[in-house]
Amino acid sequence: MNAMNKTKVPIPMFLLIGIIAISFSSIFVRWSDAPASVIAMYRLLMTNALMLPFLWNYREEIARIPLRDWLRTALSGIALGLHFLFWMESLRYTTVASSTAILTLEPIFVLLGAFLLYGQRTSRAALIAMCVAIVGAICIGWGDFQFSGKALNGDLLSLVGTIAVALHMLLGKSLREHISAFVYSFFVFLFAGLVLAVANVFIGASFTAYPVKEWGIFLLLAIVPTVFGHYVFNWLLKYMKASSVSMTVLGEPLGATLLAYFLLGETITTVQLLAGCLLLVGVGMFLRSNEKQ
């Protein structure tokens, strides 16, 4: 990839770390009994608490950020907060495989948005590779799709969350051109957490009535999928196209399904394993074609 040559760091290694980290997200959410909005809020605000001691080092950069970028950062944070809210809530109604498979639509929304907003085009080879990867990801969760009842509600919630994270990714690509990953991530997480805090006040959710186990899960969500997942992807937006970063996230359905098999006792079929291989081939082809443009 061109990005690797520019940054002199192993980009594939960071991609792998990010994919593995976000794959744990659905597992931690399923372990928790707290409301989805509370889980998402503390996940983000605890991440801010972990980052806060280092924020002073970026004070000069923060002072130079114009109002227009603050507004776009706030919008990116709101979109991320809505993504967490709707996607985490979807896991109450449908399986990990089904919910994360719907997230594979994210690159389509990102590609469309990149074309409409920035005039960014994608090669035919990259589009074919994306279709291969998305087919593989959808096949992973196909057996769990149900088009009625609670499962359908969960799938629709996941779809809304996917649209929201695509908007977050598009805004992030633009902002990361001139804002550091640390500053961008800190304030995006903060705005997202505050939006969720307002939502929790509105619905009357408790902010404190949770056992030690729940606080441990909140912290795990802050450290693993947020710091090692979303922060890493925010950093990569400086060196890769938003569509490429979104495509690598397609590894989450495979990772989450494997983790759900070992940690939640959910079943995994031969078809899902073959679909996972198809997904990986598609992602690899897409990254090679898209980043060469």
List the keywords.
0% strand; 293 residues; mainly alpha; disordered N terminus
Could you walk me through the main structural features you see in this protein, from its secondary elements to its overall organization?
It is a single chain. With 293 residues, the chain is an all-alpha fold. Helix content is 77%, strand content 0%. The protein has 15 helices and no strands. The chain starts with a helix and ends with a helix.
Helix residue percentage: over 70%
Largest sheet: none
Given helix and strand content, the structural type is mainly alpha
Overall pLDDT confidence: 85
Low-confidence stretches: 1-5
Strand content: under 5%
Give a brief outline of the structure.
The chain contains 15 helices and no strands.
Sequence-ordered SSE layout with sheet pairings:
Layout: H1 2-7, H2 11-23, H3 25-31, H4 36-51, H5 59-64, H6 67-90, H7 96-102, H8 106-118, H9 124-142, H10 149-175, H11 181-203, H12 212-236, H13 242-248, H14 251-263, H15 270-290
